[in-house]
Amino acid sequence: MTPHTPLRLHVPEPTGRPGCKTDFSYLSISPAGSVRKPPTDTAPADTADLATSLVRVLDDDGKAVGPWAPAIHPERLRRGLRAMMKTRLFDARMVLAQRQKKLSFYMQCLGEEAIAVAHSLALQDGDMCFPTYRQQGLLLARDDISMVEMMCQLMSNVRDPNKGRQLPVMYSYKRAGFFSISGNLATQVPQAVGWAMASAIKGDTKIASAWIGDGSTAESDFHTALTFAHVYRAPVIINVVNNQWAISSFQSIAGGEGTTFAQRGVGVGIASLRVDGNDFLAVYAASQWAAERARTNHGPTLIEWETYRAGPHSTSDDPSKYRPADDWQRFPLGDPIARLKQHLIAIGEWSEAQHEAAHKELEAEILAAQKEAESYGSLLDGRVPSAATIFDDVYKELPEHLRRQRQQMGV
Ligand SMILES: Cc1ncc(C[n+]2csc(CCOP(=O)(O)OP(=O)(O)O)c2C)c(N)n1
Ligand SMILES: [Mg+2]
After folding, report:
1. Engineering a disulfide at 304: which of 12, 72, 158, 262 sits with its beta carbon 3.0 to 4.6 angstroms away?
2. The pTM is what?
3. Which helix H or strand E contains 271, and what residues bound it?
């Protein structure tokens, strides 16, 4: 008989605690330019090495190096930089407005701006994103989405397109390929795969882009979606944003310890990449690769974007309770805005003076938008849609029991 060994449960721990430094050595980081770039029709099993290495383009000097360095016009890069700056400034203003009680809640994407902004450049009109609450960059990168309208949603005022029925940040923009955000995490991944399958069934040319955080991959919806995407070779990009945290739990609680989230894709038969999400050029190149693969019927791609959630989870969260305050400054992949700025300056397409001017311009633009949005009301002055409107737009004919409930509300 074998001697009795007491069984022990392994409970993953974060690698840093308040007051002590996080040891980021758990992150495997490949040198910029060192990862190979296969053709877009490569077999899923042949991407196994790409699910553990890290696709990076920008080196420490801001030079674009290696096979993933994309051909992209400097003007598009300037627009991308501007959209990332806009996103960061928009977030900062809205956090402030929440503190002033003008909105009930806010979620910023500080430190993660490159992912949504650069990804949006690789998509086409008619493609559909199924985002989470941290991809506001998909909207802010577009010229046809008004910041005023977005702010009205945040302030739940009378101009809120969702009529105050959704949590602030849960936008819905069909015309911008931005599917309504769901607060029930992971539900949108199978929906995205289903949407992509429908596009293929119709013989259309449009692809879907699904979004999920590292923590939410622990939901069964994620795994079901992967199986469907693989089996039917759905034209979908499955984006796993690994920002190292899910509110207060470290990514290892969702299974990131000793393996990568990208490896989950390979295991199911999906081509998978692990990419530096703070490297604008790498995000653009990997997104383009996956979009071309999907659009040419070579099937889905799972991309794990490595990044860091620099701010609190939401305005209801206090990260000083569970992680060191200066983690972001020491995060080895740096700040996406600073890195693209350094690159543009290095290639002679940007300057400190231009950066400062753009910053000022954007600040003024955002302030003006906020002023206009507030003129339509905010939570502070109570000019919000009447409670009676909760009964609208659900049934063609209001059923009797709801009619009674409306009467009970006295409206
Ligand atoms: C099904 C479900 N479970 C739990 C929650 C509560 N919740 C909201 S955000 C969140 C953390 C998600 O973390 P992650 O997926 O890593 O995304 P991140 O916030 O880091 O972008 C949790 C647990 C929820 N909204 N839905
Ligand atoms: Mg997360």
Report:
1. 262
2. 0.97
3. strand 271-276
